[in-house]
Write a structure and sequence with these properties.
Blueprint (H helix, E strand, L loop, with lengths): L2 H9 L37 E6 L1 H4 L5 H8 L5 E5 L11 H6 L3 E4 L6 E2 L15 E6 L2 H10 L7 E4 L21 H12 L3 H20 L8 H6 L9 H10 L6 H15 L11
Parallel strand pairs: 1-2, 1-5, 3-5, 3-6, 4-6
Helix pairs in contact: 3-6, 6-7
The structure holds zinc ion (ZN).
The site of zinc ion has 6 residues, from loops.
């Protein structure tokens, strides 16, 4: 037996087990729900750069909008760092990014500036923004922010044009909540004054939602809307109430709504069953 040949055979063995045949190798979704044909034919090259600080659990979600973002933008325009705290030793490029004066953190705190009010950038600008977005659920994003003191000194920005999410398959906590992809798309199109950035980036998401709806998925109204329509199927606990207080579009009658919802729930317990969420 020729030892060299055997050795060559061994090194050529794939390290990972082969992927199932019906999974798209690009978006890693089942072929039936692959969105790749809706991605931009050429990766988009905005002037600004997106940096995602991704919670490890987010990466595993089936319908993970950050993947659409990174497949749609040129590689150097969308950089992902994973962790529950930032920066860590392994995030070698991150400290420089966080120390740059043109780095913005998209985080809707009280003193965050509206993206709309920032100086716009174009091809003649001598500066471009780096937009840092925390990719996770609201609760995860808040914990990451609190643990990552390096983020506290960044200029904080928010999107105030609060349209409901088009990403209707995953339940958003409130009407103004957007997915990571929608947040990035909206911010980029405003900062560069290029509406096509938003439309091109959101095409795969729209296609995916259309597909899922036509195949029987429930349109997931936000919890805020379901509360107002009296269709939220559970008692409102302290955590959800706090979250709603922070992010509700109209905060004025929230206490009243929550109180009457919980009273009604206790009395009747006749709320509809929670639908199965597709995430
Ligand atoms: Zn695909």
């Amino acid at each position: 037996m020729d030892e060299d040949v055997t050795w060559d055979d061994l090194i050529n063995l794939p390290i990972d087990p082969p992927l199932k045949r019906d999974i798209c190798l690009k978006c890693r979704r089942p072929i039936a729900v692959c969105y790749c044909k809706y991605l931009p034919s050429e990766r988009l090259n905005p002037l600004c750069k997106i940096v995602l600080l991704q919670h490890p659990a987010e990466e595993k979600r089936c319908l993970h909008t950050a993947t659409i973002l990174s497949l749609s933008l040129k590689k150097e325009k969308c950089v992902v760092f994973t962790g529950k705290k930032f920066p860590q030793n392994r995030h070698t490029e991150l400290p420089d990014i966080l120390n740059s004066p043109n780095t913005l953190l998209l985080y809707p705190s009280l003193h965050a500036v509206d993206v709309q009010d920032l100086p716009k950038v174009d091809e003649t600008s001598n500066f471009y923004y780096t937009l840092v977005i925390i990719d996770g659920t609201w609760a995860q994003a808040k914990t990451i922010y609190n643990k990552s003191t390096a983020l506290h000194s960044l200029k904080q920005v928010k999107l105030s044009k609060r349209q409901g999410s088009e990403y209707i398959i995953r339940t958003q906590p409130t009407e103004g909540c957007l997915s990571t992809l929608e947040t990035a798309a909206e911010a980029l199109s405003i900062l560069e004054n290029k509406p096509f950035l938003k439309t091109d980036l959101l095409k795969p998401l729209a296609a995916l939602c259309d597909y899922q709806i036509s195949h029987g998925a429930v349109i997931h109204e936000s919890k805020e809307l379901r509360l107002k329509n009296h269709t939220y199927p559970k008692l409102i606990g302290k955590r959800l109430k706090k979250l709603l207080e922070k992010t509700c579009v109209e905060e004025t009658d929230l206490n009243e709504i929550v109180q009457s919802h919980n009273e009604k729930y206790e009395k009747t317990k006749l709320f509809p069953m929670r639908s199965t969420f597709i995430t």
